[in-house]
Prior knowledge:
This protein has about 350 residues and is an alpha/beta fold. The protein is about 40% helix and about 15% strand. Strands 3-2-1-4-5-6-11 form a 7-stranded parallel sheet, with helices on both faces. A two-stranded parallel ribbon has the order 7-10. The longest helix is centred in the middle third of the chain and has 22 residues, at about 120-140. It is globular, with a radius of gyration of 19 Å.
Amino acid sequence: MYFxxxxxxVTSTEFLDPSKKEAILVTxxxxxxxxxxxxRALEAGQRVVILDNFDPFYSExxxxxxxxTLKKKDSTGSLLTLITGxxxxxxxxxxxxxxxxxxxxxxAARPGVRxxxxxxxxxxxxxVTGTVNLLEFARRAGIRHFIFGSSSSVYGNHxxxxxxxxxxxxxxxxPYAATKRAGELLSHTFHHLYRLNVICLRFFTVYGPRQxxxxxxxxxxxxxxxxxxxxxxxxxxxxxxxxxxADIIQGVVAAWNFSLRSKEPVYEIVNLGESQTIxxxxxxxxxxxxxxxxxxxxxxxxxxxxxxxxxxDISKAKSLLGYAPRYPFQKGIENFVxxxxxx
Length: 343
């Protein structure tokens, strides 16, 4: 069943055989994508353990508010466990005690292309070392299922579009992209050596309710609504494959179910996007229409590490996972603005 409500994330994809005994470990579970995923799991009656360190990359208060929303979805009071901890510091005794685990959905990361250029060391420590720690935790605990949140940034400025999973992505143009590609490679190593089921999901520019305040759509909505200028880098012709968070959650759940159904160990890399591109100018225009105000635009040169276009080929996601994105960009922006005004 599918509903087009403002923040409803119910799709035809349900969690396969939710287990109240074995938990799903969701890293970064009080963040943007993670909180939506945990919410969906709780609605299905699945026990969830969140590991999150409330990283100050953006306001801790936002994540605390997300967690309060999640607690209300735990109808029994026994399905949700929060462990405050850092993926760089495993093992964490409380994490081990909170098991047993059916699998790991690893979404925790230091995000952002531009900030990674200024601080590549911390990005490597969090996104690479942290991922190795989670893979090793899964191996030692005998956990078979591992979903890794990767990124479309691994494609860089590849000249051929749409981007397919078989493309050469060995020339990343930002430290963030390099760490995400490293996570995919390390995941393959653990799959090969320890027969771990791994599905790496390359997310394409996710937006929607609870989006981080530093991301373009959230920032532009706030600034335009407040009558303040927005900064447009480049000529406005750069394009992104914006993906509404409900569609991303549909894909993550489908990947989880695919892993559970697999009789033999699998390793897959899958794009999750809308498979359509929206220019920066068009994105601003849609926000203006949804808010009912014109933007005051300040123009700046393109920034190092930024890509010209992202465009997902989702044929593999459709055939392998039954993925079917349902939110056109206009509808997604309308939903986001409605959520924003309710804050």
